[in-house]
Amino acid sequence: MNFAVLALLGLVSAKRSVFDNLDFEIEEALKVHYPMEAVQEYERQGMHFKEFILTNLPTMEANLHKTLGPIAERWSKIGPKYLPELEAWGNSKSVQAKNDYGMNVIMPSQLMHELMEDGEELVENFMDGDLDAGNMFTNEGYTEWIDNGDLRDILEDLYEVKEAFKALVESKMARENDRLGMETLADEHFQKIWTWFQEDMEVSGLEGLAKKCCETLKAMKAKARDCPIQKEMKKRIIKLLRTIEATKQVSDLGSPAKWEKWARKENFQPWN
Question: If you average pLDDT over residues 215-225, what whole number do you get?
């Protein structure tokens, strides 16, 4: 099966259901239905989650201040020394050259115009009112739908945007822009900023910075894992997501053969 079809089918878990009591005509549309009893359960869990957050908000804010307060205080003292060098770097010849290249070469280029046109066409499909898609509450619950043909049109438009973006970022023009970007990093003002930053962060090079970031994130994760409030929040969120996944009803995905024929015709390709 073509990867595009697999990606589409992976968006939803195919739990079949019959929609006999909907008072609108969406027989040819992909539908995701949430029964009324399930919607009421979502609301109940959501309200309990809100109450839990409001009850524990003062403690959560105090913990956040305890964690980030010393960092903010330290950088409020250290940070101002960077400002003159940042301004000088922004006004340097290398940065100006890169900015000029972006404004005068990349922006007016045919590749950029094609990307913008494809993006505008995609947006227009959602904004012009012709898209056969929507959502509605009925006495049966809540239903979202989109016409399978319109869904295929959207996927085609998305692919066009992806191809236009790929053509732009893989172009000779983009490679020149990358080269100009690297030259900005060789500027004396940036090098001074980078030296200060390594000293203030107590790291050496990009590898040292990456290591320190990983260690910090690992420590934050461990702290969250041991926090009873964080554990309860995670438990409630997972419960709600699992409830939604278990109760939603997906139907009318369209004929697999028709999707296969369409995918073969379009010949979608991954970004290798």
Answer: 89
Q: What is the pTM of this model?
A: 0.77
Please report whether residue 110 resides in a domain: yes
Q: What is the pLDDT of residues 40-55, one digit of tens each?
A: 999 999 999 999 999 9
Count Cβ atoms below 10 Å from residue 106 Cβ, excluding itself.
16
Residue 271 lies in a domain: no
Say yes or no to pLDDT of 2 above 50. Answer: no
Tell whether 272 is covered by a domain. Answer: no
- Alpha carbon of 141 to those of 40, 64, 77, 186: distances in Å? 9, 39, 56, 60
Mean pLDDT value of segment 127-141: 86
CA-wise closest residue to 190 among 43, 74, 88, 66: 88
Backbone angles phi, psi at 136, to 5 degrees: -160, 140
155 near 123, Cβ under 8 Å?
A: no
CA Rg value for the chain: 26
Q: What is the mean pLDDT of the chain?
A: 88
3-state secondary structure of 206: helix
For the chain, the domain total comes to 1
Are 106 and 152 in contact by the 8 Å Cβ rule? The answer is: no
Give the angle subtended at the CA of 68 by the CAs of 64 and 72, to the nearest 5°. 140
**Residue-range definition of the domain harbouring residue 64:** 3-266
Q: Which residues pair with 144 in a beta bridge?
A: 32, 135
**Residue 248 within any structural domain of the chain:** yes
Q: What is the per-residue pLDDT for 27?
A: 56
